[in-house]
Every structure is written in structure tokens, then in C-alpha cells.
């Protein structure tokens, strides 16, 4: 289990990935969040999180077009998908 603290929210995820790798991913995402916080005026944590996710997704798509091996990209996508599923299972459903 790994505890994640982001934007005032704390939760734990379980993954088959090595803890060091998960820490590296989390550190990378925190860096993107910091960039968003420095450039965007919104205080809404959900909006900041979405913007950071879009930045990371843009980087993934650009790396694909710049010739990253499809095997590497596929592995990255699979890891990201599993992590997102873990997060979705933990986070409460939004109220209507």
C-alpha cells in the first residue's frame, strides 16, 4: 500500500509496481501540479488536477509522435490505467 497526499486529499493505493517507481511517478505528477499552481489562478483542486493530467497526457502523446517505442508507450499506458483505476476505486463518487 502506498499513501498519496495531493491537493488536500489523502488516500492509499495498492499496486503491483515497485514503490520506488510509484514514488517517481508521484513526484513527476507533483512537479506538474506545481507548474499549474504557479501559472493558473484557480484555487479549485479538481481543476488543478485535471489541468496537470492534461499536461501529462500531452507529454505522453508528444513522446509517441517523437518516436518512443510502442512497447514503452504501451507499458506506460497500462501502468497509468491501473493507477487510475486504483484512484477511481478509492475516491468518493461526486455528488449530483
From TrEMBL:
This is Cell division protein ZapA, inhibits GTPase activity of FtsZ. The keyword Cell division applies. The keyword Lipid metabolism does not apply. Keywords: Cell cycle, Cell division. SUPFAM superfamilies: Cell division protein ZapA-like. GO terms for biological process: cell division. It comes from Alkalispirochaeta americana. Gene3D superfamilies: 6.10.250.790.
Amino acid at each position: 500500500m502506498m499513501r498519496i497526499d495531493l491537493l488536500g486529499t489523502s488516500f492509499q493505493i495498492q499496486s503491483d509496481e515497485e514503490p520506488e517507481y510509484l514514488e517517481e511517478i508521484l513526484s513527476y505528477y507533483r512537479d506538474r501540479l506545481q507548474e499549474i499552481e504557479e501559472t493558473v489562478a484557480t484555487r479549485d483542486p479538481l481543476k488543478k488536477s485535471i489541468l496537470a493530467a492534461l499536461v501529462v497526457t500531452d507529454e505522453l502523446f508528444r513522446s509517441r509522435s517523437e518516436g518512443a517505442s510502442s512497447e514503452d508507450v504501451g507499458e506506460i499506458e497500462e501502468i497509468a490505467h491501473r493507477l487510475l483505476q486504483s484512484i477511481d476505486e478509492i475516491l468518493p463518487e461526486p455528488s449530483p
